[in-house]
Amino acid sequence: MAFFWRWWNEQSDDVRETVKELVNDGRLEFISGGWCMNDEGITHYNSIIDQHSLGAEFLRDQFGECARPKIGWQIDPFGHSREVASLFAQMGFDGLFFGRVDYQDYQHRTMTKTMEMVWKGSANLNRESWLFTGVLPRVYEPPDSFCFDQFCNDQPVMDDSSLHDYNVPERVQAFINAAHDQ
């Protein structure tokens, strides 16, 4: 939220109104909503709560209750803890997705098809601390043939059917295949 806040402060009233409309219509959603992405392995729970409270307060003040994040996002913390899963569940999140995991855990989860799970965040809180959790299968990488970065050579989606390089059906099928693989 710290980066969004900086961007938000530079926008005109017209742009802000457009963003508010997108949020109210459910076409733009905020993920996690914390002021930053906290580390999990060594961060005290007070710090996690405080930085999420700061982000949540900003979202509520600018957009109302419709902007409340429902999904936790931890793409690059060094380590994970049950406490974070428990806190996110108690914050009302429906799920948590993270990227970085130990390579042995990643290999095991890939082989056993357990990249998604219900994380039981606390032995004492029962279901109120349970959180649907998924490991991002490629961390930072897009699915094969969907890298549109300047350093990639993947074919773009060409959607003008009057041109010779129209490829929407093939690209849609490739995306469906990538989703099935994940």
Automatic annotation (TrEMBL):
Coiled coil, from the record: none
GO molecular-function term, one example from the UniProt record: alpha-mannosidase activity
Record GO biological process: mannose metabolic process
Stretches assigned to the Glycoside hydrolase family 38 N-terminal domain: 2-174
GO cellular component entries: lysosome
UniProt-recorded name of the protein: Glycoside hydrolase family 38 N-terminal domain-containing protein
